[in-house]
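We close this part of the discussion by returning to an individual protein. The sequence in question and its structure tokens are set out directly beneath this paragraph:
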Amino acid sequence: MNKIYKSVLAVAATTIVAGATLAPKVVNAWGDSSNGRASYTAAQIESGVLGNTITFNSISDGKIGNEKNFVGAQLSSSTSNVWNANEINVKDGETYTIRLYVHNNNPKGMGAIAENVTATFSLPTTVATSHNVIGYLNSTNSTPARYWDEVKLVSDSDFYIEYVKGSAKYTNAVLGTVALPDDIIISGAKIGYSALDGKIPGCTTYDGVATIEVKVHKSVAAKVATTVRKVTIADDGTISSNGNKFGESVDANLGEYVQYQIEYVNLLDHTVNNVMIRDILPDNLEYVADSTYFYSSTYKNGVRVADNTVTTTGINIGNYNTNANAYVRFVAKVVDKNVTCGYNQLVNWASATVESKVFKDDASVMFNDTRENCRQKDGGNTNKIVNAGATEIAGVALGAGAVTTALGYAIASRKKF
């Protein structure tokens, strides 16, 4: 997958808020911090049954049906208003939108403003044939203060789900659709009516929807994520990021340095041994000797890898329990071996070999050659994608016999990253 072209959530505010919900197949898996809040009809709410009490998602015949079923899912490419509120069958490689409906039920509007309202999604991290995605809604002055609901993603074979970075959104009648931080799947994100300030008045006029996207991956035993950032190297060899963050692509010029990060996570339910990490660099990117570092729970500050084989035979990063992870970083220099005039996309591929299976991911360096004397190919300026190693790495399964480094790393002087 060419990850620099991310799928974007594009759902109109009125469509996503008013979307219908499929009838439940099973008992709803909802809950709250009061161990079971009451349900109200819309008529009861209008009659003032709540008084001054602020409560969320408790109307049995609301805009989405039973509001206690406030978390749902659908295929992201769907143009339908129908959301699967309890269970959805998923397919490998498809992206799904998870919805969390938000409605302060008190009809007093600005006279019943919920404070410090946050939304959170809890995502599973292992491989299985079904996964429950749980949505949480919190407010410091509502009763209950915390609400949750879940939707089940199911398949006939094992899979894991990946959160699509940057996909979190909040939609309502005033804000339209605005971005939420990726922290929504960790510590939660503030939402609101006229701003993301945690304030939501009562009544359907002020309701909204928080959404994220997840991608389904089947037949896997590992997560491999490759990212890149620009760095500088001092005369003493110190590597500095200069505050640059890792991403799926980076712009760089001839002679500049980029640092790749390869993350490995064991998604199996048992320990795996002798995990191999290998990276294939494309033309015009040159590995910098002695720049490979290894990070794990044991080596939180990083340890330098003695061998320079991460881009050749690969390195053995050891054994991993379920959900254990590690990072490998190394530096490459942008060079001119066969640069094409114009825009060059230099795609590298990293892989993890686990129990004789290869799992891979890519990252890109974007290079625009505008030099006056740059090479002319195909009659002038071109846009070129150098996609190195995709075929080669797919067919490689390095075993322990090819290992030249088995966590026998020489601890070097720490470098600032």
